[in-house]
Structure formats: structure tokens, C-alpha cells
Amino acid sequence: xxxxxxxxxxxxxxxxxxxxxxxxxxxxxxxxxxxxxxxxxxxxxxxxxxxxxxxxxxxxxxxxxxxxxxxxxxxxxxxxxxxxxxxxxxxxxxxxxxxxxxxxxxxxxxxxxxxxxxxxxxxxxxxxxxxxxxxxxxxxxxxxxxxxxxxxxxxxxxxxxxxxxxxxxxxxxxxxxxxxxxxxxxxxxxxxxxxxxxxxxxxxxxxxxxxxxxxxxxxxxxxxxxxxxxxxxxxxxxxxxxxxxxxxxxxxxxxxxxxxxxxxxxxxxxxxxxxxxxxxxxxxxxxxxxxxxxxxxxxx
Length: 300
Ligand SMILES: NC(=O)c1ccc[n+]([C@@H]2O[C@H](COP(=O)([O-])OP(=O)(O)OC[C@H]3O[C@@H](n4cnc5c(N)ncnc54)[C@H](OP(=O)(O)O)[C@@H]3O)[C@@H](O)[C@H]2O)c1
Description:
There is one protein chain. It contains 11 helices and 14 strands. By secondary structure, the protein is α/β, with parallel strands linked by helices. Helix 1 links the parallel strand 1 (7-11) and strand 2 (30-35). It has helices at 16-25, 51-61, 75-80, 82-103, 134-149, 165-168, 172-181, 200-212, 229-239, 273-277, 286-297; strands at residues 7-11, 30-35, 43-45, 65-68, 106-112, 152-158, 160-162, 186-190, 194-195, 197-199, 217-220, 227-228, 247-251, 267-268. It has a domain at 7-164 and 198-224 and 269-284: NAD(P)-binding Rossmann-like Domain (Rossmann fold, 3-Layer(aba) Sandwich), CATH 3.40.50. Residues 12, 14-18, 35-37, 47-49, 69-73, 88, 110, 112, 139, 158, 160-161, 168, 170-171 line the site of NADP nicotinamide-adenine-dinucleotide phosphate. NADP nicotinamide-adenine-dinucleotide phosphate (NAP) is lined by residues 12, 14-18, 35-37, 47-49, 69-73, 88, 110, 112, 139, 158, 160-161, 168, 170-171.
């Protein structure tokens, strides 16, 4: 069910997903975690775009697994700083592949549902990616380089990430919570974006299960159920018992185009087809996860 007594190096572990990786894998394994932003006592400072330093740190630790999870995750930042985006999200992944080969260890890489162009309503693991923007393209190149070059490649594609709590969550849930805390009575929510929430804690548990089964490859890995930004917002208000106090005003994406100018697919809904066929899909329904996430992290 889970890997045990392994040495795991986690690069880029200071973000919303890194926190869940740390909490989960520290129970049974020996970890070394790093990030360019040393925001936790258990993190070492490392910018993995410094190849020599990355090699030195990982080789010194001599892990059984390399988890390369960090990336520039703001789509807008990637559009504005394209060289840095490719250097961080692609070239550093090539370096991680070299480490995986040198040490002959599995490499775990996190990709995104955003690599698809959104023309289909749902995407299986084997649908063909067609990334729309710089972030998606750089992550797709990372995915390809891992699959083609790593010693034992694992690629896990996440959807709309939920996790990290008030401090680390940079994404949709926390953006809504912040507006609620500021006292808004109407939330403007897009009605033309569809995806699948992905609870960080379920995500890491399922990765552990796949690693324990030694079945490397590419996996879609999202919560069960399908949804839209509007459905997620409705559910947040329901869980927080605010449905009567706060209303939702549906708008299309153009309403936010100044702030969110990077291209985004209409649909980035994933289905964990491969995991289900292998009987390894332990992801829970997004509503159950959302409720757990809100209740354990946010006091309104
Ligand atoms: N968030 C999502 O909705 C989502 C969805 C699908 C896939 N993913 C993927 O999931 C992975 C984890 O992302 P996340 O959700 O945890 O986002 P996150 O909270 O932004 O975490 C990413 C972490 O990587 C760090 N990082 C960036 N460049 C680095 C570098 N050169 N060296 C070392 N660390 C660096 C970031 O540091 P700074 O904060 O200082 O930049 C941040 O702590 C990423 O590969 C991302 O592409 C995320």
C-alpha cells in the first residue's frame, strides 16, 4: 500500500503540494526537502535551476526516489517571463532526468490537466496533449522529457489543486475565501471553465500506492466527479453555510482578462482511466475533499 524506509529527495517542496508530500511521506521514510523559498524549518534552500548545486545536493543525499515537484505555477508569470518558465519547468526537469539515470532511481514529476486544449469535455490518460500557453507548454515538455529519459519515469497529472491552507494555497479556493473574509456579498465567477479539483492529500496517497506497485508511466490523478468554477463556489458557500448571505454572479472569462490574460482551456476535466483500470484509483469525490479541506483549514 505504501513505500517504507526509503530515502526520498523532494525538490520544490515549499508549495501547496509540497506540504502534503512532506506530511504524508515523512511518516515512513527519510526525507530531504528543498525549495528556493525556505518557508519551513524542514526545507533546505535550493534553486534547482542551478544545475551543479542540484546535482551536488541530490547526489550527496543519495536517495531511493527523486520527487521533482516544484515549478512556476502562475500562468501569467510564465507568459511574462518565458525564458525563466522554460528554464524552471522544463530544463530543470531534464536535469532531474540526468540525476535519475545517474543514481538509477525513479523520478516522480507532477504535470497538469492544463496540457490539453479543452476541445473535448473529458480527457483520458492517453488523449493527445495540445498545450495552449507557456505554462502548459513548459509542463508538457517536462512530461515528455521524464517519460523519454528518466530511469523509471512517473508522471502524475493534477487538476485544480486544493490544499496548502491559508498560507500556501495560491489557487481558486483561497482566492474565494479571501474575498469572503473581506466581506463581499457577491462573488463574480466564470461560467466557461470546467475542470476537476485535486485534493493534495488524496493525490499524494494515491502516488504512494502507485509507487508501491512499481507501475511507472503517465497517470491522470484527480478527484472523482466533474465540475465547474461555479459548482465549486456553490459548494464552498454551502459548506461554510453562507449560501443565503453571498450570491454568485456568473460572468465569462473576459471579465477577468486583464488579471488572468494567459490562455486557459475551456475544459481541463481529467478522468483517472488508467488508475481505475489498474484498480489503483483511491481518489475521493471532490465535494468530500473540499469539505474536509475547508473544515480543517479555514475558520470563517
Ligand atoms: N497548483 C495547481 O493548481 C497545479 C495543478 C496541476 C499541476 N500542478 C503542478 O504541481 C506541482 C506543485 O505545484 P503546487 O501546486 O504545489 O504550486 P506552488 O504552491 O506554486 O509550489 C511550487 C513550488 O515550487 C517552487 N519553485 C519554483 N521554482 C523553483 C526553483 N527554481 N527551485 C526550487 N523551487 C522552486 C516555488 O517556490 P516560489 O513560491 O518561491 O516560486 C513553490 O514553493 C508543480 O509542478 C505544478 O506545475 C499544480
